[in-house]
Design brief:
This protein has about 100 residues and is mainly alpha-helical. It is about 45% helix and about 5% strand. It is built from 4 helices and 2 strands, in the order H-E-E-H-H-H. A two-stranded antiparallel ribbon has the order 1-2. The longest helix is centred in the last third of the chain and has 17 residues, at about 65-80. The radius of gyration is 14 Å and the shape is globular. The termini are far apart. The model has no long low-confidence stretch (mean pLDDT about 85).
């Protein structure tokens, strides 16, 4: 039943959000999707493999945005430390070329 709920949450977030991703405990990208690769590395033919393991916070549009995002993620991970936390929130990103997404 937990797996079914998790799949349902993933489908809902995918429908509502531009990109869905998983981060590890250090906020590094796990299992990057093609959509994330297109957003953050639009000129790269192998963006998905290049994104794996990179810090998500490095793609924030500003230091303030990175700090706000880190705090949001830290609050979320403290809610369910054994499972991790799923949620949606808005961030302003910049791609690998420094362009605001």
């Amino acid at each position: 039943q937990v797996e079914t709920i998790s799949q349902g949450m993933s489908q809902m977030l995918t429908a509502l959000c531009d990109v869905m991703l998983r981060l590890d405990s250090d906020f590094c990208i796990e299992q990057p999707s093609g959509q994330l690769g297109e957003l953050l590395m639009p000129r790269s033919s192998n963006a998905v493999s290049q994104l794996a393991g990179r810090s998500f916070l490095n793609f924030m549009a500003s230091r303030d945005e990175a700090d706000r995002t880190r705090k949001t993620l830290e609050r979320g991970s403290s809610c369910a430390p054994s499972q991790g936390a799923a949620g949606a929130f808005r961030v302003q990103l910049q791609d690998a070329d420094g362009e605001i997404c």
